[in-house]
């Protein structure tokens, strides 16, 4: 029997199809990414009072001063990751768990770190209950997850003031790190490829707005 908490109706599915068409028009062309956006019920990552906002192409507050990213941004970052089935991917900034679920849906093994305890606890319970078997960790994403490294891909979903070396160190040769970088109001979406000899190749992909990646002692 379907748990009503996780109901995904024809109406929701219809709204998701429209959302997919909207982000396709905005330039996302990777069919596997679009299919994942169409499959994962974004409304289930919202508190029940706000369901009508779930299929707008906008970021939305999820509590603890944080946001679920705009679907276009999720799709854009996921496209840059060039996800392959079986990839071992580290996400920094679990938040609602939506981005992690998209990666899982695409066949990745997903590890995700969150520094806000309330969000970590919520995602750790919710994701497996929805069938997204993401490994959730509470901690500081600046440090990555050395015990589980190296990773094929790493995605940072908060604005970083700089590129933490621990993250490039934890990338496999041939791996990709996607990270929005800058201290100001907006960040430059940056993708870093690690070549087989370990050198890093950096590309920039335009400006986006993220909540900041916070350090250990900063307030949230
Ligand atoms: N990926 C999320 C989703 O799908 O809902 C959206 C992430 S939200 C834009 C950024 C998240 O990064 C917030 O949940 C925030 O608490 C978290 N964060 C900020 N600094 C962090 C750090 N140093 N380590 C881990 N998570 C951090």
Q: What overall geometry do the principal axes of the alpha carbons give?
A: globular
- How much of the sequence lies in strands comes to 25-35%
Placed side by side, the strands forming the largest sheet appear as 5-4-3-6-7-8-9
Average pLDDT, all residues: 93
Number of helices: 6
Q: Write the CATH fold name.
A: Rossmann fold
* Helix/strand/pairing category: alpha/beta
Q: What is the H/E string?
A: HHEEHEHEHEEHEEE
Please give the alpha-carbon distance between the first and last residues: 40 Å
Q: Any low-confidence stretches, pLDDT <50, length ≥5?
A: none
Number of domains: 1
The assigned CATH architecture is 3-Layer(aba) Sandwich
- Quaternary structure of the protein: single chain
Helical fraction equals: 25-40%
Which cofactors or ions or other ligands sit in this model? S-adenosylmethionine
User: Major beta sheet, specifics?
Assistant: 7 strands, mixed
Rg to the nearest angstrom?
16 Å
Commentary on this structure:
The chain has 220 residues and is α/β, with parallel strands linked by helices. It has a single domain, classed as Vaccinia Virus protein VP39 (Rossmann fold, 3-Layer(aba) Sandwich), CATH 3.40.50.150. It is built from 6 helices and 9 strands; from the N terminus they run ααββαβαβαββαβββ. It has helices spanning 10-25, 31-39, 71-81, 98-105, 117-129, 165-169; strands spanning 60-63, 66-68, 88-92, 109-114, 135-138, 151-156, 171-181, 187-194, 200-208. A 7-stranded mixed beta sheet has the order 5-4-3-6-7-8-9. It has a two-stranded antiparallel sheet with strand order 1-2. Helix 1 runs antiparallel to helix 2. The longest helix is centred in the first third of the chain and has 16 residues, at 10-25. It is globular and about 50 Å long. The termini are far apart. The structure holds S-adenosylmethionine (SAM).
């Amino acid at each position: 029997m379907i748990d009503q908490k996780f109901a995904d109706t024809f109406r929701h599915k219809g709204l998701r199809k429209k959302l997919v068409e909207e982000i396709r028009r905005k330039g996302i062309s990777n069919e596997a990414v679009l299919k994942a956006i169409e499959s994962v019920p974004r409304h289930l990552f919202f508190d029940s009072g706000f369901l009508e906002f779930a299929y707008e192409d906008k970021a939305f507050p999820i509590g603890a001063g944080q946001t679920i990213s705009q679907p276009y941004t999720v799709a854009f970052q996921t496209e840059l990751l060039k996800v392959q089935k079986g990839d071992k991917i580290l996400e920094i900034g679990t938040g609602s768990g939506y981005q992690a679920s998209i990666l899982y849906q695409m066949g990745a093994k997903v590890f995700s770190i969150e520094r806000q305890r309330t969000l970590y606890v919520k995602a750790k319970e919710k994701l497996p209950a929805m069938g997204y078997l993401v490994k959730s960790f509470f901690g500081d994403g600046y440090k990555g997850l050395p015990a589980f490294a190296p990773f094929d891909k790493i995605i940072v979903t908060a604005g970083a003031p700089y590129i933490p070396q621990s993250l490039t160190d934890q990338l496999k040769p041939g791996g990709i790190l996607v990270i929005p970088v800058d201290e100001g109001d907006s960040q430059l979406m940056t993708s870093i490829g690690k070549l087989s000899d370990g050198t890093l190749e950096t590309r920039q992909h335009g400006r986006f707005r993220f909540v900041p990646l916070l350090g250990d002692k900063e307030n949230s």
